[in-house]
Amino acid sequence: MFGSQILDVAIGLALLFLLLSLVCSSIKEGFETFAKYRSKDLERGLREMLNGPQATNILPKFYDHPLIYGLFRGRYDPHNPGNLPSYIPAKTFALTVLDLVKQEPDDSYLKKTLTPLIHAASNDFGRAQKNIEDWYNGSMDRVSGWYKRRTQIIIATLGFVIAFGFNVDTIDIARFLNVTPAARTALIAQATSTTLATGAALDGLSAAIRVTDIPIGWTANQTAVDKKIVWRALPDSVGAWILKIAGLLATGLAISLGAPFWFDVLNKFMVVRSTVKPEEKSQEEPSKA
């Protein structure tokens, strides 16, 4: 029984971290859309691929090419790349540069780069196109790495801001769930229907707080007696502040792991619980004489 109680507390925490991570992901996506970083990252990656160390400016020709120009509105402006496409198919890229290289002088960076890729194809146009697509995809892996690192930084920052700003204390919440069976039961019920839909994350988090009264948020000016029972009260000693900061840091670190991580953890916990609970129920049933 005690082991299942710990498991239920762990499920409640995993659900909370999942919902908070989804909220942070939703905020991050809104920020990315507003700042148009994906378009800027792609433009930066193409600039490094096509311009080379000589900093030849072939990008205007690339973006003005009919195959690329139809993917975005307006004209190419190196000082305002936000209107550019955030994704270009590998086949479209390959066909575009194969067309552009015909207009380049023999000593141009683009022609020097594509020549070995074309020669390796042994005059087979399909193989040459595939080689260029592979070159492009390899470079886009690096661009994806920029996006992933920025995503991790943004979500981690949001996680710590939410933890400290709204008093989401892992230690206090775990203690609260441990002594509040009704809250554990409500969170378990919600965990069975939780998905990775970011649009419903805020609603799910609001419902969890409302139904279970999880101690999230700050409450100041409590009396000495109230502080012993009000989880949201400000700490009143150095030791309490140390414990509080530890709990808030734990929450920020947990959120920084991301929603997919906590979704997998929650699913594993639920599978374990589905096997533990039936065993406990069968043990609690009295034996028949």
Q: State which percent range the strand residues make up.
A: under 5%
The number of distinct helices, counting runs of at least 4 residues, comes to 12
Task: Please give the number of β-strands.
Answer: 0
Helical content class? 55-70%
Mean pLDDT: 83
Order of helices and strands: HHHHHHHHHHHH
Taking all Cα atoms into account, the compactness measure Rg is 27 Å
Structural class: mainly alpha
How many domains, in number, for the residues? Answer: 2
Low-confidence stretches: 224-228
Please state the oligomeric state of the protein chains shown: single chain
How does the major sheet shape up? none
How would you sum up the global shape? Answer: elongated
Question: End-to-end distance, in Å?
Answer: 25 Å
Which structural traits does this protein have?
mainly alpha, 12 helices, 69% helix
Provide a compact summary of the structure.
The protein is mainly α. The protein has helices at 2-35, 37-50, 59-64, 66-69, 90-100, 109-119, 125-165, 170-178, 181-191, 201-212, 238-256, 259-284.
Structure notes:
Helix content is 69%, strand content 0%. It contains twelve helices and no strands. It has helices at 2-35, 37-50, 59-64, 66-69, 90-100, 109-119, 125-165, 170-178, 181-191, 201-212, 238-256, 259-284. The chain is elongated and about 75 Å long.
